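Team,

Forwarding the record for the chain on the shared tracking sheet. I've put the sequence and predicted structure together so nobody has to dig through attachments.
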Amino acid sequence: MLSILNVYNLLGVLATNVCVCSQILDKQLNTSRSTVKVDRPWKCSNNIIKSLTAMINTLNWSDANIFYEYGDEEIIQNITHSFENNLPFFQLTIYEVTRMSAVTAILQRIYLKQYPDIHVILLLRNSTSELLKMADKFDGYSNKTTNYKSASEWVILSYGNLDLVHLHLQNVIILFCRGSRFVYPTSLVDGRLIPINCLNYEDIRIHPWQNSTCSVKCLFPNIQHRHGKHHLVIGTIVSPVPSFLQHHVDDKNRTVYTGILVELTEQLAKLLNFTFTFKLVVDGYGGQNEAGEWQGLVGQLTRQEVDMVIADLSLTTERSRVIDYILPPFHKTNLAALCKKGIDTEGDWMKIFRPFQGCIYLTILATIFFVAILFYLLTAYCIRLPGDEEVSKDMVLPLLHILIWLFGILCARGDGLGTKNMPIRILVVSFSMFCLILSGVYVGNLTASLTTIKYTKPFNNLDELVELPEWRWGMPYFELYEQIMNTSRDPILQKIWKGLVEFNKTDPSTFIMDANVHIDKLLTSGEKYVYIGPDSKYRMLNRNDCNVEIIDSIYSYFPSAIAVTKNSYLKSDLEYAMGRISDSGFLKTLEDKVYKDNRPSKCQIRKEKRPLLIDDISGAFFVALIGLSITVLVLLVEITARQITRSKTNKCR
């Protein structure tokens, strides 16, 4: 029992001591806070609050985050009341940041909730520069997924000097308080404080700032450029296609880059207002090693070594899991094949049929039969006008004789058969004109076709290539091609890859990277060889040789697109810029530069002479149709006249 009472007494003593300690601790905390609290020199608080309210109204902010230190509750209350009276729908979030340890978490929360329109008001005495530097470095700590530098807008209330020399935040306004009434508004541009030119300084020193001619662009000069003055590191690679990107060292020992990728990058930099530096990679486009680590351009992005990649980097499902692509693609590459140009082995006797398509010959025969039948009917049963000589039965030609006679007209060798019957004469004349037109077109095009050499391709697609036992093929080895062909469900692609592997056992040059080696091989070696590659068309158009034939688009295109780190803040702006560039036709211009035909004029691509289509000689059939229509019309007139003559004769009798 005694022990229990002793325990209660002990607990009572401890509780008393705890209360005393807590009171002492609270007193010490209050004392420490009282040491922080000093008389704030906000002597121009009324004017600065009114100026701040008018400025936010001009900026058209709907919300803002205000940071203050302990001891400035009074001015915070005055700002809140001013906003409530003048900006009734404005939302203000207040953060007390006397202890700066929580600032990083607050900045992160603000970004996630309010991006891309982040509005901040700073009302700090001791920690303004420190907080600004924390915000300035925030993007570097966020794995390049945030963009505080250009997406945030800052209004700073200050009465003293600030260390802003190395600050990279784009949109910063500082309202300096001087004396009891003076407010000096300035903008931070390139680390320098620039007076806001649209303000009347004489009036603002005496009266609160009134919005007259100021605009958002006046207050934040860089607001129209979301990446103003940013310097980005861009990963790239020397492309197998020189038109994409090449580099050399000039006389001043500077690395100079050329190609369409440089033009594309400069266009993006102009639209988004950033500067850039290229960083070359030497270990390829992007594959995984045995440890599963990404190499090449993709590895640069995953390791945060570059801000983006602008290269002919193909878009694949595996890569898109670790990086983000910017759509639309700036280039689409078709897998094509090159082989030695062959000559047509068509026999000479077949050349006379080149001028016309087969359907034209069938149409001509049908026309002859139709006209022959009509001729026979008119000759045998046509009503004759009085005075016409009676035609003996020997003049009524059998149908076979009429066909032979019409064919003779077609060959311009009729037998001179004539008739006095008007509809038959019109029919014969229109058919003769029809034959004359066809003969002239045929002779002219036959002459042209006999003077041209017709080239034929040994195969038109991969399906035909794999069925040719004497042919071999090669291609530059890329891990991407191996993945596509090995994992493809297309049996033709599987056969192509198996063939490459088999040929490589006896010919080490099957997978050689230099395309010129493959092309020299197909031109000079005695074997039937094919080069398959994404740069085939470019190689053909830039080779001083007319004996190379291309089988284009044998496999669907490989889209090449700009790439950024996963969830990069650059993605949305780059997609917007690429959309504008694509709509302007700039990408089409770059495509034309890649595939410009630089061969000698004698090698320029000539379209194969095609046979004439039926639409090309439709005029001849139109003439025959007109003749047929006139024939029927005249025949009807003759029948009507015959009826009238007969009626008159009957009346006279």
